[in-house]
Amino acid sequence: MTREPVPVSRPVGLTIASSDSGGGAGIQADLKTMEACGVFGTSVIVATTAQNTQGVESVHVLPTDEIEAQYTAITTDFDLGGVKTGMLATAEVVETVTGYARDLDAPLVVDPVMVAASGDRLLEPAGENAYEALIEEAALVTPNADECAVLTGIEPEGEESAREAGEALIEMGAEAALIKGGHVPGETATDVLVTSEGREVFEHPRVETKATHGSGCTLASAITARLAAGDALDAAVEDGLALMERAIRYPLDVGEGPGSVHHHADLRDRAAREPTAETVASVVDALVERDVSPLVPEVGMNVVGATPYAETPGETAAVEGRITRTFSGVNPNRGVRFGASSHVARFLLAAREFDPALRFAVNCRFDRDVEAALDGLDWSVATYDRSEEPEQVKDAAEGTMGWGARQAFDRSATPAAVIDRGEVGKEAIVKLVATDRESLTERVFSLLDALETA
Single GO molecular-function term (predicted)? Predict the structure, then answer.
């Protein structure tokens, strides 16, 4: 028996850039990212590089007739939804690609790659001047601070100078400019999107890592993919930056150098949503079957599971309405869904800042009997006292949960349990954390056994 094919229609993106033999940047990063964003990626390779996570060894630029042959093969067969450029190496290649850009019927994202993250130069000096004509054709240009200085003479050092650099690029002909702030020192990385209608500022905490190889390529490719899928520019930039933030937060530990950004982190995280929710549901079933009523606090119990690369409460699964005591035992009020927990979810996410392997947490009743039960277990137990919490923390974005996690986890060993002694109007709670379902369930049952035999 033969089966009928079921073709899948996808937007098509094109990257015109150079190959990175190390796989972290260039054409390889572009195609990985487009695939992660649901776009079919095509490519025109203008140069090959011998490089890895430690640096660039050599660059070989392809003849322009070979570049032309690739471009013709793509454009005569595919309906392109978005196009990006990356490392173009020489003035001649920049000029060749500019000729293609003038005839494009798709948004063009220009990533003016000039220097690798390792510091190796990737564009000959004459190529810098040739970029002006290419920028004139761009729907978006995405320079970092160093590239801004070369292209505009303005070195962004903050929001205002980034705006000035963006406006200069628009005066050169670009429809919009995203001035990336990754190279600008500070605890917060600030990216500024400048259009003829104004500016939009995106801020996110800086990740202390040197594994940023491929970050610019990945960001530009993600934005191009979103544009190819039909997103508006501001939405495409916002989604691209979110993908990039996660890719840097969870880098790939490959090679002998700093490593590479994780091009598929966002895709892997989305793929893990259903398994994570199923795992939380299985833990809840086990707690109901065992009847953990003695551990259910007055506010109710919740089991929270984070996806592997979770960054927000909306990426954690929990019981909607929590687990409560009944005459016949304990029962979840409703089913498991993402974003159902605020309190425990925020604590788990804050704890993951110190131990990213943590995936699950549950809140339990805490009183003298529970404290005595904890004392009898061979666990690492941490505690924090809300009376010591600075007043300004309560109004800050991280709130009490972030502050409490820092008090509990800012030490050498990851605790199995964290005690929140509460305050007036706030019930005392102990939270159990674990890397997997089995460990979390075992810890809840061990605490219950110790409590019942005390």
Answer: hydroxymethylpyrimidine kinase activity
